[in-house]
Amino acid sequence: MSEFWKAYCRNRGAVVGLVILAVVLILSIVAPFWFPGSPWDMVQMPFLPPFQEGDAILGTDTLGRDIASGLAHGAYVSLLVGFVSTLVSLAIGIPIGAAAGYFGGWVDDILSRITEFFQVIPAFAFAIVLVAIFQPSITSIIVAIAVVSWPPVARLLRGEVMSLKHREFIEAAALSGQSGFTIIWRQILPNTISPVIVLSSMMVATAILTESALDFMGLGDPNIMSWGYIIGAGRTVLQQAWWISFFPGVAILLTVLAFNLIGEGLNDALNPRLSKRRD
Amino acid sequence: MLLDRALRSGVVALGLTLAATASHAASSDSTPVKGGRLDLVVQPEPPGLMIGIITNGPSLMVGGSIYEGLLRYTTDLKPEPSLAKSWEISKDGLTYTFHLQPDVKFSDGKPMTAEDVVFTMDKFLTTTKPKWREVMRHVASVTAPDDNTVVFKMKEPYGPFIRSLSYNVAPIVPEHIYKGTDFLKNPANDRPVGTGPFMLKEWKKGSYIELDRNPYYWKKGHPYLDQVVYHVIPDAASRATAFQTGTVKVLPGGSVENFDIPRLAKGKGVCLSEKGWEYNAPLSFMWLNNREKPLSNPKVRQAIMYALNRKLMLKVLWNGYGKVASGPITSTIPFFDKVDPQYSYNPKKAKELLKEAGYDGKPLRLLPLPYGETWQRWAEVVKQNLKAVGMPVEIESTDVAGWNQKTSQWDYDIAFTYLYENGDPAIGVARNYISSQIQKGNPFNNVEGYSNPKVDKLFSDAAVAADPKDRQKLYTEVQKTLQADVPVAWLLELSFPTLYDCNIHNLIETANGVGNSLGDTWIAK
């Protein structure tokens, strides 16, 4: 563990990413205590610029809602959507990829064609269609993001499994009479975990971006305050009130950046050979 | 709030004076100047210009320069001459005689006579327009005793008739082009021929509609403009930019986002007018589903009225343009009466009423109107207002088709809408409150399901009362009853201000706004 940690910390960017993520996490936890009211409450006059005296430090939006409060409450939504949708897409992608890679033959053919089918549709356009069909809500958004983002997981798993399945320890397991599923579960998956972790940290970042983009386009859950919603609502008044879109924009940028940095750090830590070469 | 409005109109007036003094140097302010081209925005692009058939807003705005009605209406809804020079109404309210302007010609050079009017009223519009069929139910006959006279005989007195003869309800179409053809498929629908001040020159789909002056126009010296060009610009922000850069000189009401209006109005030489919506008189309100608990209880509905901070909505969402609605009839429509009860913002009273009604805190669904930013924000404000008095609300997301579906199938608890009142309570108001209009499948009738025999009778008596004084009495009673019962939650009388270059004069001369006025418009050099 400490070796892993050391390897991770060698990447400065990754540490910065972790710090940012910690801040966002803490923000989402303390939001209900720090801003006890609803983020939808109109607390001040509309179009109040940021850094003025008074409560709304980051200014107010077109209706006089506190942007700082919206940011804090929105952090929870962004993280929730990012993590849950990634978990769901791992749950879809891993079994499909593993089965295709291990069994090969017609199973591989069918599963690969299905994966390709999902992969050729532009992800964001597909997500829009799904959300529009199922009515925008937090659940439908998570499902839509998961459905469009599992193919890379499946392909990664398939490749990893194919390269592993002819190794001696797998053959030994097969000779000892273990079934295919047991071999995948006990022997193969534990050995593919590191690339999956790296990939999923990037997927969280993409999911957060997609959620914001959907919300920006007015396809968000209308009862939930999120960063993308604030940006979308402020877009039309960008000329009068830059701060409405600016602060949540910065929040999204930093969060997505954090996940990317963390992903890179994990990559370095989990693939020591690779990182050493870089040194 | 009042002060706000006073200040604003003061600023506008000041702007007008400044512009006027500036243009004095070149030409006298009161003498119209001939020539020039007027650039406007039309949003969205109209599906067609034959307004005897297609009647949506953009079509009417452009088509109003091509077609005319017998009458037009001043901004306080008094009838004034258009194709009819003068008219008489018999004492019993049963005979209307119209004398037409002499020597009127269509834009193809053929004369327009009383025969064209009879054809339009009796044959054409009864086929193409449901709204006109409704008017003709009260008419026994339309005849043309001579080339310049048209006589309507009524079955019963029908007060709204005199306000049903504008270009948007009854545009006069040429008999020689339409007689004996399939009206809806006539190729002339693409090349509209009317008596109006302008005629279609070119329509480049997706880009612009260009009108030239009609050389045969009957009104001497009119129109002043040589050309009118309606630009089609799909994006609201681009429309605002086009106005700022001077590509277009007029932004008719509703063509830019509300938030942009104060910014654009501050521009140099920019004038703003709230006029031109008196006939349509858009009233925004929320359907409250009277059929289901808890909204079936009038006390809960009254509580909603008290819970809404409508002054704040007016100020924040509509920049103070418009007015808090006092009841079912908007203040610009005849027979409006500001009667009690009125509902001012009073959350305490709302809570008391909810308690009395035994409301159990069941969450309600709120359906916003999918017409853009302002309406979405509006739903969010209503949600907060209702939550503050202990009424939890979930906003549903929807598109135009979904909104139509849900309201017309009564699948909602609370739903936003706004409707035009069309010049007379009998036409635009009664439909939302009388029991005979409770019919599934139409999102514009009595969608809330309110049924009160007293209201039904008052409305039907008022429509056919001959004496306006009697009508007033009945409508005052209707307003009192409805305001006590709160079948729907009235929000605001909407205003869609028109922004224009101050060098443009006589832009809005009628209660129908830019659509019916351009024959009188001129641009100071």
Descriptive labels:
A: 279 residues; mainly alpha; MetI-like fold; B: 525 residues; alpha+beta; D-Maltodextrin-Binding Protein, domain 2; Dipeptide-binding Protein, domain 3; 6-stranded mixed β-sheet; 15 helices; 30% helix
SSE arrangement:
The complex is a heterodimer of chains A (279) and B (525).
Chain A: H1 2-10, H2 12-34, H3 67-103, H4 105-120, H5 123-133, H6 138-149, H7 151-164, H8 168-175, H9 180-216, H10 227-235, H11 242-270, H12 272-278
Chain B: H1 2-24, E1 37-41, H2 57-63, E2 71-73, E3 79-81, E4 84-89, E5 95-100, H3 114-128, H4 130-136, E6 139-146, E7 149-154, H5 175-178, E8 198-204, E9 208-213, E10 227-231, H6 236-244, E11 250-251, H7 260-265, E12 270-273, E13 283-288, H8 298-307, H9 310-317, E14 323-324, H10 347-356, E15 364-367, H11 373-388, E16 393-395, H12 400-408, E17 414-419, H13 425-428, H14 453-464, H15 468-485, E18 488-493, E19 498-501, E20 504-505, E21 522-523
Helix pairs in contact in B: 3-4, 8-10, 14-15
Task: Describe what is shown at a glance.
The complex is a heterodimer of chains A (279) and B (525). By secondary structure, chain A is mostly helical.
Describe this structure in words.
The complex is a heterodimer of chains A (279) and B (525). Chain A has 279 residues and is mostly helical. Chain A has one domain (22-33, 60-278): MetI-like fold, CATH 1.10.3720.10. Chain A is elongated, with a radius of gyration of 22 Å. Helix content of chain A is 76%, strand content 0%. Chain A has twelve helices and no strands. With 525 residues, chain B is of the alpha+beta class. Among the domains of chain B are: 32-62 and 196-276 and 497-525, D-Maltodextrin-Binding Protein, domain 2 (3-Layer(aba) Sandwich), CATH 3.40.190; 283-494, Dipeptide-binding Protein, Domain 3 (Dipeptide-binding Protein, domain 3), CATH 3.10.105. Helix content of chain B is 30%, strand content 18%. Chain B has 15 helices and 21 strands. In chain B, the strands form six sheets. A six-stranded mixed β-sheet of chain B has the order 14-18-13-17-15-16. In chain B, strand 6 (139-146) and strand 7 (149-154) form a beta hairpin. Chain B is globular. The relative contact order of chain B is 0.16. The chains are: A mainly alpha (279), B alpha+beta (525). At the A-B interface, loops of A face helix 9 and helix 11 of B.
